[in-house]
Structure formats: structure tokens, C-alpha cells
Amino acid sequence: MAKKISVPRGTTDILPAEISTWQNIEQITRKLLGIYNYKEIRTPIYEETDLFQRSLGQTSDVVNKQLLQLAGDKKEGFSLRPEGTASVVRSYIEQGLDRKEALSKLYYIGPMFRGERPQKGRLRQFHQIGVEAIGVDSCSPYLDAEIISLSVKLLHLIGLEGFELKINSLGTVEDKNNFSSILKDNLNDKRKDLCSDCQDRYDRNVFRILDCKNETCRDIVHDLKIGNDYLSDDSKEYFNRVKDGLVDLDVSFEVDEKLVRGLDYYTHTVFEISDSNLGSQDALGAGGRYSNLVKQLGGPNADAVGFALGIERMILALNNPAEDTKTLEVFIIALDEKSFKIAVQLADALRKEDIQTDVSYRSTSLKAQMKFANKINARSVVIIGEEELKENVVTFKDMESSDQLSLKIDNNEFSSVIKQIKERE
Ligand code: HAM
Questions:
Q1: Which of 99, 249, 257, 371 is a good FRET partner for 355, with 20 to 30 A between their CA atoms?
Q2: pLDDT at residue 12 is higher than 80
Q3: Mutation test of ligand 1: which of 92, 126, 168 has the most ligand atoms closer than 8 Å to its C-beta?
Q4: Is residue 265 within 8 Å of residue 292, measured between CB atoms?
């Protein structure tokens, strides 16, 4: 027997039975984002590796350990996108969006790729809904609050409850440097107890230690007293206004002074939304402000804020989303070769009337085909066979009432069938 080929590790097929959950999430998203005046953007699923290295940071796990580089393109170096922000910023700069609009409000829905060790809620190909607001002079705490409240509203509309929103401020680049020194001072005498990765992180990027999953490191981090002294007065004031904005918008949140996020580009506001029912991979989504990324990638002095939600995690948290109930308006069964010619024409006529129709192309018995029609929840069945052709009729069966009648078809004119189906709608 030929060897079967499996789906790549850490990826999944989304089957027809699950698709309505996905389409529902996408529809709710598009509608809400339209209401907030966001426009969709679609960028390639791979980019120059350099883009991710320069934006997410050389020391981030996403770049350091999880970037899936494309083989065979060694000269230029391309990687599958691990997230969407870097690509959107690349596009914003390249397409000169700053010259077209004061504030570009953009969103994307699509697959992202990270070479992680797969587990529940952690995939190598997963999907994000991402939102980015980018513009010159757009550093407004009210926009941060709007973005955060939008992410919460979206989750509620999708049907999620009971998740937690944590926020923090990293301040400006100078504040982040202060934060880094304070962390280093606090961790200095515990350095030797950290895991080997974190000993390395201490020098390369001390923030990453706060996200370490190693139990000893977590205990050490848990005992740290940080406060927000690293923030300048202006940054504290900015953060206070974000918090006030959230209160005004009725968004509940908790300030977590150890929330730093795993990607380098953040400044000022950062946030994360988690659902404790998800187990170890509990983040439903996250985001924050990134004031320097556009400039850092060669663009104008534009500021930005955004977030991304993981679709697979949302579906996991929805806990048994409804399976699709299959239905079909009309199922046509042809019993011989001549009847097939009529069946195909009838199907074409019904479809032109926007009536959902399918033809059974199987050649099993009528009984077996009726059983199948039941299984697929066909609302009506049209049977065409030798008897029917002799009389210039088709047999129409309403599967809900079991009523059966003969409907005339003259010269391949199917108005009687169309009328019958439309009347029952
Ligand atoms: P992130 O925290 O890396 O942020 O990812 C956002 C969300 O994507 C996570 O909270 C999670 O729900 C989902 N996610 C991430 N990795 C995986 C995975 N391996 N399997 C399943 N789901 C996953 C970003 O990507 C930023 N670009 C967010 C952002 C947008 N910040 C500003 N703008």
C-alpha cells in the first residue's frame, strides 16, 4: 500500500465541519473593525528575514529560536512571517501610506508561522486577527485605550467571557533602559540560580527573564519588587491617561508591573489578555504601542499601537463551538443516463435562481440515495427516472413533510419546480 502523507507537525486541517466557527469569527471581526473604521490589509506570508530580525529583536525567542526560514533562497534570506506587525509596518513605509492618510487603521486575518514545539494551543502554523493603527503624531493615550477596549469587545462578541486583561507601561526607550538596569540590579545576586538561558538573557535582554517558564526563574521573578520608578513623569502621566481612558470605556483591567512582552518593538503601553482555562498557553491575545519601529525600519516618524488575537486559542476557549449542521435545499437523484442530462440542466436552472442544489452523481439504488439525502439533511429531493421522463415530469419530495408530487417539465422548462421550491421558503 502506498505510504500515507500526514499534515506537517504543528499544523492542522480545518475541516468543513469546523469552518462555520471560523467564518463566524471572521465575520464578527470584519463587521466590528468596519464600525471602528479599520481597513483590511493583506501582505505576503513571507518576508526578508532581516525585517523580522530588525523589528522583533535578535534576542526574542520568535527570531532566535522559532523563525522558519525558506530553504533554497540563501542569498536573500526569506522567512515565513511569525507575526503580522513587522509586515504591516514594512508595507506602510514601502507604500507611503503616511502620505495618503493621517492615521492608517489596518487589520489582517491570516496564518502566522513559528517553529515551536507543538502542544495544546501552540502550533507551528496558527492564525491571528491583527489590528494596527499607525500615523505621524498619533501617540495618544486615548487611542491606546480604544485599541485595548476594541480587543476586549471583539472577544466578547465572539462569545468569550471570563478572560483577564493585564496592562503595563514600558515607557520610552530611555525608560526601558532604566527598567533594564533596575531589573539587572535586582537580579544580580540571584543570577547563578537562574536557568542557563536566563543567565544568557541577563546580558543580552534582561526583560526575557520575566517571561521564562522555568520554575526556579518564575519563583525568582515572583519575589521581585519592581514598581514603576523606571518611568519618567511624562510616561507615568501617559499611562495614567490610558488607565483613565479604559475606566471611561468600562474596561476592567489589572496593572501587572512585570508584563514586558516577548517582542522588542514595544514602548509605553503593553497588554495581554489571558484565559486561565487554556492551561499553559493561556494568552488569547496581546499588543501594545510601538513608537520607534516605523522609524527604525527606515520610515517616517510615525507612532503606532496594535494587537493580535490567536484564533485557534479563541476557539479552544470557546469550548465546544457548535458543529456545523449540514443542510441542502435540493438534492437531485437521476436514475439513468438520459435522466442525468435533465438532472444537470435542472440543477443549472435552480442554481441560477440562487437555490442551493446538488446532484447525486452516484449510481447506487434509489433507496441508498434517499438514505444519503436524509443523512445530508436535504430539505427536498427531486427524482428523475425512466417513468418520469415518459410523463415529462419529475418527482418532487418534501423531506420534512414527506409529501410527494409530480411536477411538469415541458421542453426542459423547470418553472414548476422552481415555483414549488420558492413557495416553501
Ligand atoms: P504575540 O503575543 O506574539 O504578539 O501573539 C499574539 C497572539 O497570537 C498570542 O496571544 C496567541 O493567542 C497567538 N499565538 C502566538 N503564538 C502562537 C502559537 N505558536 N500557536 C497558537 N497561537 C499563537 C504578536 O504577534 C504581536 N504582533 C501583537 C501586536 C500587534 N502587537 C502590536 N500589534
A1: 371
A2: yes
A3: 126
A4: yes
